[in-house]
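Per-residue structure
===
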Amino acid sequence: MRFTVDGDPVEGLRGQTIAGALLASGTLAWRTTASAGRPRGVFCGIGVCFDCTVTVNGLPDVRACQRRAVEGDVVETGPGATVPDADAAGEAS
């Protein structure tokens, strides 16, 4: 199964999440926090923290750890989610 991330092809296994395929390909971070530009990828892995958000087929703020990759998906990474992160809330140092 193949999809693209920022225009680059990524191979994944059928039923694998976008995050799983990215991690398997060696990609550990695919966005940065909106406020401090810190790298983010998978943190909780259960869809609670929103650290792994991507845009999939034009739909923003998709949690990559929850969304199964589908053949032909177009995934875009970005600078940060539109949901608050710990940096924006002043909780991170």
Strands lie at 2-5, 8-11, 29-32, 39-41, 53-56, 59-63, 74-76. The first strand starts at residue 2 and ends at 5.
